[in-house]
Give the backbone structure.
Amino acid sequence: MPLRFLPQLRSATLSLVIGSVSLFAQPLSVTRLDGSKLSPAQIDATAARLMEAAHAAGLGIAIFNHDRVVDLKAYGYRNKENHLPLTPDSLMTAASLTKAAFATMVMQLVHEHVIALDKPVYQYLPKPLREYPALH
């Protein structure tokens, strides 16, 4: 049985890309959970403060409102020694953040009855694990 949730992942990725492209075409407002607005200057100031507090060379942020990217920015450097700026499309490690994001996605798929936690992962794959070259 093929992985039925892959189209959802592709759709989410495409939405992120399309949202990012449209972000540069028009300024979108950022609305907090309490309904108040967040200005670009406030976002920039918060990013600068957090980078300084963490002694971080670079910081990338994406802010979503109602399933749309409304702010996507990169600050600082991806390589400070070579003065290479961090850009929104720079690849970065996210440490353990990806574990929580993946767990949330899995639980949403369980809630939607797309997958079951008691079913082994290999049963969702179109071919046995040993036939995937990246796993050798």
About this structure: The two ends are 22 Å apart (CA to CA). The chain has two domains: 1-91, 93-136.
